[in-house]
Design goal:
- The chain is built from 20 helices and two strands.
- With 518 residues, the protein is mainly alpha-helical.
- A two-stranded antiparallel sheet has the order 1-2.
- The longest helix has 37 residues.
- The chain is globular and about 75 Å long.
- 36% of the residues are buried.
- The N terminus and C terminus are likely disordered.
Amino acid sequence: MPDMPMNSIRETTASPSTAQAGESDNGSRAGNAGAGWRLDLATIIIAGLILLLPLMVGRRSAESIALATLVLVAASAVVAWLTLLPGRWRAILPWPSPAWWWFAGAFTVAILLQVLPSTSLARWFGPYPDAMLDSPVFAPAHWSPNPSATLLGWASFVGLFVIAWVAGQLNRQRRMWLWLALLAAVMFQVLYGLIAQGLGAHTVFGIWQRAHTGFVQGSFSNRNLYAGYLAALWPLAVAIWWWPGVPLLSRLPLPLRFAGSLLAAAAVGVALVATASRLGAVAGMVGAMVWLLLWRRQRGGWHGPVRWLLYPGAAVVGLIMVWYGLTPLAERLVVTSAEESRLLMYVTMVSDMPASWWLSGVGLGGFEAAFRQVQPADMVGWYDHAHSDLLQWLLEMGVVGAVLLLVVVVAVLRSGLQRSEQPALYAGLAALCVVGLGDFSWHMPATQLVAALFLGTLLAGRERPERTQLPALAKRPAPARKSGRSHPVGSAKGRSQGTHRLQAVTGQTARATRPGGG
């Protein structure tokens, strides 16, 4: 008789348990297929936010910030439903760890106390003058002088919390699509900003009036916020060309990747200098230096062609920036003095605001109301932000905010260099920290999203192959081994043994199918 494959014999004599295992195997495959498209859709939504939010801040107003925050929160809710919330399918990503929940819980409790209707809390901790506290008509009812801004800030935190966690749990392939979207977003900002400046445009997209027609500002409301965004993404725009597994880029030959990295470095550097933002330029240089140092440490030094490409590339980028013009930036650096409004604001905040405000916090989003009480008469203008994200956070959240900030800093520093993209992410956060000392870029939804993606990836730790909660594919049980001595399949005794087993099985099958056979 012709030879029959052993797999066919196993399928013919399969037991009921084996059949059930096969059904479980098919069900697991279906579950994993469902997980795949849901994770892909969540990645697409986050990438869409990356591309959309920078286009929504052409005019900085309460309405535009609220609209961008609403888009962010709505998108994060869909992402959470796709990946974290159980429904028709099981949650396909693990829920946040206890440390994340403790952090979110502490922040939420603080916000709840700030918006809770309580005249006692308002009297004890609120930043209100005595005349208002003693008035029977205007007596405040909340700790925070601006409860709506406080709740808006909490909603933004929840959305960023979800996106940060999900981004850290995505596998490398999907996460690389997010970095590619960030590259596309920053390069669009660079090209649009330079072209609009070269053409002498007076509006952003023909909708909003440009605040600084003499400098590059992209689609942002002013050049400083734009410079902070560029400084945070400059290391990523240079380094992504060398990361393994990046869609579209990792398949390019070495000369094209080097050219792309060089052009990205030059383009972002030129746009950053053309903003004439002093703090933005310093932040960009700090970020670039941090990236170079960490990348060198991760690689164990400069080896091979990298050493011969890095120095000439840096020289070319520097020459391009100088050729474009450092004069506007240099002129602004020269005129910097202690009489600037933001420096006077810092002095006023530290010297004139009561110490109790710094201890308890005036409420998230309550800086404007608090500063109006101590604003000097000769300091004209409207100040809704402190032009220092660090000082404003400490003033609004008090000791609780300082502890939460310290927890994040320690956790990020302890994460180490465990992924190829981490040097660029550390460098981007370092640039944002420098910007946060003298500006309010952390209040912009587009920059907040960048920071959330960076923090979520850094805090996720070591790379894992696929961190889902779906059951693994069921394995079919191995056939039971019979007692007795067995021989290798390739040997003569093994072939004879296999032939006898094959004849025994086929003989039993023939007797079972023969009419009247028993």
